[in-house]
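Researcher: Can you fold this with alpha-D-galactopyranose in place?
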Amino acid sequence: MPGCWSSHRPFPLPAVRRAVLAAALAALAMPGLAAAPADPLLPAGRWQGDTSGAARTPPMGWNSWNAFRTEVDEDKVMGAAQMLVDSGLARLGYNHVNVDDGWWLKRRQSDGRMQIRTSIFPSAATGGANETSFKPFTDKLHGLGLKAGIYTDIGRNACSQAYDLHSPNLPQGTTAEREVGLEGHVEQDIQLYFKEWGFDYIKIDACGLADFVPGSSLVKEQSYRPQAPLIERNAINRTDIKAVRSRYEAVSAALKAARPEHDYILSICAWGMANVRTWGKDVGNLWRTSSDITPSWTSMLHNFDSAVKRPLYAGPGHWNDPDILYLGHEAFDADHLVEARSHFSLWAMINAPLLISYDLRNGPASLLEVLGNADLVRLNQDPAGHQGVVSYDSDDVQIIVKTLGHGSSKAVALFNRGATPMDITLLAKHLKLSDQAPIVLKDLWSRQSVTFTGEQAFTLAPHETRVFEASGKRQVANGVYLSEIPGSLNVAVDGTRRAELDPTIHRMIDPWSNTRSGGARPQYAGWGGAQPDATPFGQTLQVAGQAFDAGIGVLSNSRIQVRNDAGQAWLMASVGVDDSSANIDQPVRFYVYGDGKLLAQSPAMTLGKPAVPLKANIAGRTIIELVVRGARSGSAPPVVASWGEARLLSAAASAP
Ligand code: GLA
């Protein structure tokens, strides 16, 4: 029987001790300044998962793009705004009104100031033809109690300038006048949009870094300034991930300067490319995880899939963004209410932004009812910010469970992805609730309740999603599994060595030009990232034949932070090298830190060695950090390491 490894053990590796000392001395030498630890695996001792900005819960509201594309105008936007207010949706939280592509006329060359197309935004004509301002427009929105959002591109040119060439609202003028994106104008534009014009939210696209390729027919025919792409649409290995990230970091810095109260939202629109699914959380408040959604069932599934397996990368302040809702169109219109409810339920369960995008002035009441389901909105906006976790996953059926608050209740979605009716049996263990005590399920669509013990069968119509709030006796009587509280975890370092494409998300040829498409395939990196209740590669957690239903799966050389929000007293886990590890030779060690202090460690663990229990006294500690260290040398892949049944327990929990 393996021993229990705890803080009484001597300090692990001399190298680690030296590095800790060095970091501590550096901090002492610079009073008031937290020294950045040289070794990213050293505990930070402070929460690194806060993204500045005003998105403690997922943004909600309306966006013009899916409704009007570039044919947006002031009447349409103000009509939507008024409907949000009149319908009561604004009171539910739908309070952002975001203008997407199409608003601009040109960049004035005398001083670089952006000009608004006053033919579609007449209130912007504040000082003759050459002097425009969105201030009257944002004042009107603010006067309605709403927030205002604007759109730009991180490069020189925007997406419509590559993909909507028929548009009547493309920027006009010389090559330089048509450079409406942020490149070379970050501070100027952000000051203008946020200080002078009063916007609260910005969506920043990335076509300017991808599509204006030297020598391309687009650049030649439209006389754009060519730019060697930083995002290679077809190749993650030729995408300059660092450069893309630093472009968005510069915007984040400019936003902080323009709005010292940090009352802004930064939406990164790099479509899941440039490894943004990994770093988006550290830079922006939401980041697109996939290509543009289209109003079809399969596209909705695709975008959902791009975000649903990334719950550890989202939390209060930063959210996976599978794109704007497509309710009100084609597969999700009022004739497809089952699909509309499913789309909405799924977005609610995974803490996606809830941005409506159809012509609200002419929308059917039935869709307003879907969007106005206050219980679903409450799940999405739960302040604890725990994204739903997939607890059962077949081709046809998924069960997604979302913890509310610190775990007192749960929401569960039963989702029939397929086109035929499906029988689904929900088990207590899917909910991490006891199978010995009654579980009450309240249906958040029909409002009916059912009570069961152990398991309950359901039949779902094609494409149907049932969503319940569930309460029962918790499996972890005096605490919570870490995988139940992803919003309290921050993947500070996930151990991936290079950006690898996620093979579980279909890489379709882009549909925009039909079967004639040349075939740029989306580059969704992030494969190997940390996972709740699964290994980083989607396997069941298992150490030396012992499977764990719960736990956190990581790679070697990773550091996961846990906020001890509920003031728990113990962290416990069974740790070891996962049986699925492709690296079968190298040992790893597991460490638990509390507020920067080493509390527990494992012996060297190798493949096939039974999991050892780790127990750390975390009473009074606010930031717990879970580190797995292994060799970094050579070409061997990282070791797959499992924090089996990792859980936080209260002082009342009996000692193991
Ligand atoms: C890209 C984005 C969309 C939309 C359009 C505007 O395709 O992903 O959400 O903003 O650009 O041109």
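Model: Folded with alpha-D-galactopyranose in place. Residues 1-33 have pLDDT under 50 and may be disordered.
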